[in-house]
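The passage that follows is intended for readers who have already worked through the single-chain material. We present the inputs for a multi-component assembly, then the predicted structure in tokenized form, and finally a short commentary. You are encouraged to pause after the input and sketch how you expect the pieces to fit together before reading on.
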Amino acid sequence: MSQNVTLNRAISLILAICQLGSGIILLALSAWFIAACAVAGHAGVLAGFNYIIPAAVIRFLAIVRIFSSYFEKYAGHLSLLADLKDIRYRLLSSNFSASNYVDAEQTARVLQEDSERFSGRWSGIHNPFISAAAGIAGVSLVFVMLIPAVIGYWLVLLSVLAALAGLFAVVNLKAEHNLDEQYRVYYQAQHQWLSVSSLWHLREDWLNGEQVAKAADNVFKARQRQLLLISITETTMIALGFIWPLWLASSVMTMTEPSALWAIPLVLSVSVRDWFGPVLNSTEQRAKMQRSAEKIAEFSRPASFSLPKPVNEAALSVVLDNFRWQRGENTGQPASFQIHGSGSYLLTAPSGFGKSSLFDALSGELDYSGSAEVSGLPLQQLSQAERCAYLFYGEQFSHIFSDTLAQNLIMAADNTPDSEQLYNALIWAGLPGWANETTLRGWLGPEGKPVSGGEKKRIMLARAYLSDKPVWLLDEPFEGLDEKTAELLASRLNEMAKTKLLLIASHLTPKNLRITNTIRLND
Amino acid sequence: MSAFSFLRKPLRTSQLGLTAFSALSSMSLWYWFYITSYWLESWLDGTEPPYPFLKAAVTVSLFIGFRLLHTRLRTRAGLKLNRLFYAKFLFQLSEKRWALIRSKPQAAWQDILFRHLPAIEQYILEFEVQKMLIGLMPVFVLVIITPISWLAALILFITLPLIPMFMWLVGVGAAKMHNRHIRVLNHLGQFFADRIAGQSTVRLFNKQQAQLERFELSSIELNKRLADVVRVAFLSSSVLDFFSTVSMALLAVFIGFSLLGEINIGFWQHGPSLGSGLFILLIAPAFFAELKQLGRLYHVKAEAVAGAESWQQVLTAEPVVRENTPTETFTNLQICRASVQGLVSSTDRQLLSIAELKINDGDRILLSGESGSGKTVLLDVLAGLRELSAESIELNGQPVADLTLIRNRILYLGQSPALMAGSVAENIGLGQFNDDDVIDAIEKVGLSEWLSTQPQGIHTRLGDFPPLSGGQKQRFALTRLVLFDLPIVLLDEPLAHISEDEQASVLDLMLNLTEAKTSVWISHKQIAADQFNRHWRVSANGEVTCS
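Having made your guess, compare it with the prediction:
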């Protein structure tokens, strides 16, 4: 946790207290001031009443309130942004450290939202709660000093409000869980239903989406119930604020000397929304935040990364013995083969064998049983980082990062290539039109230039060129390419096959692809 | 927001009701202020007046009553809105089916109920109601205060034009600031989610540390720019804060000094009293309260607009189905001079143009063309999922308005066969055939051997057996062709994810099963041309030529 974050947090908390405090004091002081002026005006004792000072204090408090309100928002937001950065850094670090076998896209969405929500916990939960508590404490102190007779009644009011908040917290948490559950049920139903859309017309209840509609309705009802709960609680809180003065008026105020000070509890009571409302709000936010907090804790493990030593001379060989990939409870078929020397080796297997999973296991994204050697080194002695010093893995769907083209390419190289080298890579990969400064600086990814399937494969090729590793694993490199691009890719691979070991898993083979050997993985 | 007109119209009365209840609940408390202020005045005078309990109790009860009415209306209207929206949603889906599902990323379908719909609900039932209240409540406050003190009313009244003016100024500044940064904000804002999604690639290149450092730098840059934008944007709420706080302070001082006799104007002839002064002080916040509440709801507008932009076109698209009587038999189809537009709006570019297209019962048609040329769109059209504007369409020799008459008589086989959680029998028979028929169908598609290896036979649940190969999945899909009597089959790259070993046998099976049917095939893979009796080509700009 950087020092900046703690400091910012403290500042915004102080400002929040300032804001609420100055608001309460302003209200109370104004009410008393008017009452005192009325009393003084009637009694005609102007000389004894110093009215300039309260008037000045009122104006001063107004300025304090305005400034603290703005800076509280600003400082609070800065603090939130810094916090968000730290949270996301930890999440990235943790996710980078090891494969979780989870759906990365889904994880990305979930963590994006949850980290955002979680970073708002100080401004949304803690700050309002603490400043409300401070406000209430301050008011109680004022009462103790100025109107001791009201203390008992004041404590009763506070207890009732606290009980209300407690009850709300419990019921709201349950309502929140129920809502979550309804969402979960709905998403499952919707996902199922959407995946069989080509069959809807074969079943009446599928065509009108009965099940999905029912699940959706449950979600709607759960949400409205939550709204109802919040509204009833708020109404009760405000009503209490208007009933308490009635109690005062009928009891203590009949027994004490009339004093302008009694305007204060009356006015504060009817403004209960200002100083107790934040307590209810923060309770509501806390329930919503719980889920996010759990998700974040789940994905937060400290990690450190070290780069492996660079590889100079590497033997060209891949040896598998009874090698089976493992993903959770699923295991692949055993694969055994030996490849030595440079060349292109075509890997074929019946669909369902899991060639991609085999490559995933070789490169360290999946567990495995059995044994394997890459460049003469046993896999179990190599960390994933060390393995990838020998391997380039061209995945079937290589990820194009939300970054510049240059960065997308530099990602693959061990050292930092200069523009010249990037141009060479692009030209070699069949993207000569991209080999210029402007395109290199162009943004790719979701918010950037759209990239076609063929272009993605060529970016993968450029990455392979820049990575310059001795062993290449290529997963369906020709899928989705038109004839011309496939031929270009094949000729490039023929080039590389002279000095590298290329292991190609593909059910498409362009005519000009020179294959040293075909390995059939059957059972 | 024209986007919401289909929702707003039926909820108009609810909106008005909510406005009324909200206003009435606030105003019932004003009476409480009135009687309590005057009572306090008498109390301070030492006259020991009794507190008017009955009146106070009535006002509090009225308040509670109106609030409860408001809540009830709000939840009912909310339910109604959600149901209206969802009904439209379901309607469009059941009409356009996979053509619609394909057109949106998976994430969008998740967002709709979780994010977009609640935002739209809040917008219509809270934001727009609040806008009405901003017009009403300040007027009421002024109406009540002016007979007591015209100067107090004037102090409040002056802020009326000033607040929107300054907020508008700030808004312009904030928008300018945002635009300056928007591209960078969009780019850098994606970084986190993108790197999480691409984590395996980062690992494979050993670039974890490098990317973490890059994240740190880009976050610092992002936060700096966000701070710039926010610094100006927050001023808008400060404007409101400023005017409301200063007005209240001025009022307090003015009333106090009037009561002291230091100021002698502003209260008409009857002069100031504690009762009237305190009353003004207690009511004045209501002048600004609604505007403040609107400020709190402002983010709702942005989210609702985003939701509307995603879904409005889809939900308000013209229905494709105009007649509802499905044909039983299919003999022939002829389309002359037709065109197909984009899925949701006629302002979209033209996707296909057809000079003349004929299909006879029993035809087997090969549909080819470059990728992206719209072959899939043509299949969607034949499936009756898309609008076709044609000079003439004749079905079985009779002129018809569109192709929706045959849409429930087709089977669509795509690259990813439709499979769901459930038993084998459920997946194949869809709950409409008995076990024997199911087993029979399994045999006809060549899956008997596979079935014999399943522990619970046709009652084995998907997910309990090892993942099926591409060929096996497609055979599964073909069982439905065996069971359900559907005359027309549309095949979209059915051999795409099937290994070379299996392709030949699956293709044979498909050719056999479609022998007596009418079928249209899209396939990159080589299928002997003599299998087809018609060949349609789609050019890059969407021209369909038939031979």
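Commentary: Chain A has a mean pLDDT of 89. The domain at 317-520 of chain A is CATH 3.40.50.300 (Rossmann fold). How closely did your sketch match?
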